[in-house]
Amino acid sequence: MRLLRLWPDQSHFDFMRYRRFSFPFSALVSVATVVLFLLMGLNYGIDFKGGTLIELRPKAGQSDVAAVRHTANSFGFGETEVQEFGNQGSISVRFPLQAGGETGQTLVMQKAHAAFDKDYAFDRVETVGPRVSGELVQSGTIGIVLSVVAVLLYLWFRFERELALGAIVGTLHDIVLTVGVFVISRIEFNMTSIAAILTIVGYSLNETVVVFDRTRELMRRYKTMPTEELLNLSINSTMSRTVMTATSTALSLVALVLFGGEAIKGFSVVMLIGVLLCTYSAIFVSTPFLIYIGLQAGGTRAGQREASALPQAAE
To answer: What does pTM read for this prediction?
Structure first.
């Protein structure tokens, strides 16, 4: 029985030829993402902003978004966000944080029930106060920062200096572009989004380590091989595994996007895009970066000339 091959085992594709396009393109997109983040910010969810979130489902017939928006805004609780979602005409209504603590949020719920109980069922109700939302922002930020720092320290000690720098650049690239997905798509950024970012960091690390482990192995075997050729060999020799991993992960995430429901749809979409970004960056960002910082196969550097004089290992 023949095994499934999404990528040939013995490939000789010249990936490094595209570094003159991929690396400047990625740098430009990363800078643009940072600019957009500073200008637009994230669409913070109720976890971070505080307030009251209500999801309504029509008891009969179709929902009327315009009427719900008009009624919600007439409560006098400030600008209310009203959006339709799902296949059953469900509506999410988000009220901003009210003064008066729990009493203010309770008043929101009382008016909402009085106005919508007749025509809509309340599928979901969430209320987050200012203290809780502030603590979540602080805890989430600290969690992301500490996780990223731990990953970068691991990479620094895991590889030689050049390989560590390449892995760090690739990981930061994936984090920045993942945040860019939130900025551009306006997907709600909440505690689930933090889980998505941390998962993507782990996936990015895994993809980069696989390629760089092979690079380090080949540097010891082929001490006089040109750098571009060695990096191409590293990617080609791991490409079958990379494609298989990315494909199986993407198929699982597509299923979650289509059938997972609204509660995890944002997480699933970001994860799906993140997997594609991580696969791209491991091949076209992290690895080409090694050329730009002067990585050379063992023996061509001044500090490694003694190694080049040794007999080469058999291929």
So the answer is: 0.75
